[in-house]
Every structure is written in structure tokens, then in C-alpha cells.
Amino acid sequence: MQKPVSVVSGSFDDLRARKVRFLQEVSRTGTVHVLLWSDEYVTRLTGAAPKFNQQERLYFTQAIRYVNQVTVVDTNEEVRAAGREASAWAVLSEDDTPQKRSFCHTHRIGYQIVGEAQLAGFPTTTEEAETSPASKKVIVTGCFDWLHSGHVRFFEETSALGELYVVIGHDANVLQLKGEGHPLFPENERQYLVQAVRYVKHALVSTGHGWMDAAPEIARIKPDIYAVNEDGDRPEKRLFCDQQGIGYVVLKRLPKAGLPKRESTALRGY
Questions:
Q1: How far is CA 187 from the centre of its chain?
Q2: Structural domains in the chain, sorted by start
Q3: How far is residue 203's CA from residue 171's CA, in Å, rounded to a whole number?
Q4: Beta strands of 116-192 (E only): which ranges?
Q5: CB contact at 8 A, 224 and 245
Q6: In sequence order, what are the beta bridge partners of 71?
Q7: Degrees (nearest 5) of the Cα angle 186, 192, 193?
Q8: pLDDT tens digits for 64-121?
Q9: pTM for the model
């Protein structure tokens, strides 16, 4: 039996946990078709250009595991045409309008309002999914404080090496290593966003300290490979992997083709 299709429409600019929670809630009722506003459409509707361009927003939105299809739309008619083909239209409570309700009633499609109560918390799985015996386990570690397209690309690349486990630094350790004002987002929110990326097998929060705060998690997961980017390459990590017999892979920090290079520090401003 074919699953019902729910459409959601928006810019999905600077995609953060609340909007991802929205997509997750919509996905519980069927497949999710995102109508992504083009740069020009965003500007016409809001009076300002998006923070991230269309290609980058498209790449990030497609990487969210709760999304099944993304179509770039440029006009109101394109949005309405796609809506008429769906089983339901889903909106956040603040985006609910009489016009949208009337459109769905006229075309006999469902209308789903996702309220604040449904968006509460950051649900994550506490059980690690089984890894295929034929697959290698790959682990990456980091703060992942302002999740951006560079992180998504890193996950995409490392997931090609095997099934990807991501260990997110816990709040106290990030503060100790990076200083006052870090992290910007709490550990449970950072974990939730990382887990929402389709390339990630399992995301968990570290329980150790220092640059090897993920040591307890590594001991439990027993990865074949520890992957880092050039910025994350440290003697402590190399030595640890040598001692544990874990492969150590350093990737160049290159953005997805056609996208700008992103760094959390630059986005955050400090």
C-alpha cells in the first residue's frame, strides 16, 4: 500500500532543530515532500535574500532522514500545483492561515497542524543499531555546534568508508576545550541534529574528557576506522589509534562541489 504524501513548504534557511522536529513529526504520517523556495521566491515573499543560497539549502534539506523528496519552487502556482497532488499539507501552528485551510478543503486534501507540544524535546534513539558483519565501523568525533553543509559533507564522505558513528562532545568538555560561550547549542540538541542526517548510523554524546573525550564510546563501539578532517587531526588521536589498532584517516576539508566552505566559528562569529 502506497504511503500518503505530505507536503511542507518553506525556505528551510539555516535549518535548526525545531524545523527538523517539524519534519520528523510530519514523517510519522507518511512520506515528506518539501517544497523548497528558490532564492528569488524567498526574496519576494520575505523582502530579504536567504542566509544560505538555494543550492546549499537543497543539499542540507535532502540530507535530512525524514525527507523523501525536495522540489525547488519559484511561484505560488508551483506551490499550489504540488499541494494538489499530495495527500495532506502540513504546517507549523504559526503558519496556519484560513487561506491554507480553504485550499485544502477545496481540493479535498488533509491539513496537518504541528503544534508546540509535538515539537517538545529532542528524541534520539538510545540503542545502537546493529552493524552488518560485512561492514566496517567508522567513528568521527566533534562539537558539531552549528550544524552546516560542511558537516553534512563530512558525514557523507566518512559514511562511504563504512557505517558511521558520530560522538558529540558533551557540554562541559566543549566549554573546557573551546572557552566561554561554547557550546552555542546544548548536547542533546546537537546530538539530535546529527542523528537526523541520513548518513549517520548512530549519534551519541561523549562521556570522557579532553581531546579524547570519546575514548569510552570508542571502547564500546570498537570501530575499524577513526576519521577526522584536517582541522581535527591531533597527535593525541593518532597515538590513541596506534595503541588501539584502529585505522586513522585524515580527510581534506572540502565542501560539496558548488557549495561554499563553511566553518562553525565563522557562522557563530567567535
A1: 14
A2: 5-119 (3.40.50.620), 137-268 (3.40.50.620)
A3: 15
A4: 137-142, 163-168
A5: no
A6: 35
A7: 95
A8: 999 999 999 999 999 999 999 999 999 999 999 999 999 999 999 999 999 999 999 9
A9: 0.94
Under 8 Å between Cβ of 212 and 237:
yes
Can you read off the three cell numbers belonging to residue 65?
532522514
Amino acid at 137: K
Is the confidence at residue 134, as pLDDT, over 90?
no
DSSP string covering 25-42, please?
HHHTTSEEEEEEEPHHHH
Contacts of 104 (CB under 8 A, 6+ apart): 83, 88, 89, 110, 111
Q: Can you read off the three cell numbers belonging to residue 4?
A: 500518503
The residue count for the chain: 270
What is the rounded CA–CA span in Å between residue 110 and residue 225?
Answer: 47
Positive/negative CA dihedral, 237, 239, 240, 242: positive
Query: CA–CA separation, 258 vs 270, rounded Å?
Result: 26
Q: In what order do the strands lie in the sheet with 88-92?
A: 69-73, 31-37, 5-10, 88-92, 110-114
Q: Cα–Cα distance between 39 and 1 in angstroms, integer?
A: 36
The phi and psi torsions of 174 (rounded to 5 degrees) equal -65, -40
C-alpha–C-alpha distance, residues 41 and 19, integer Å? 19
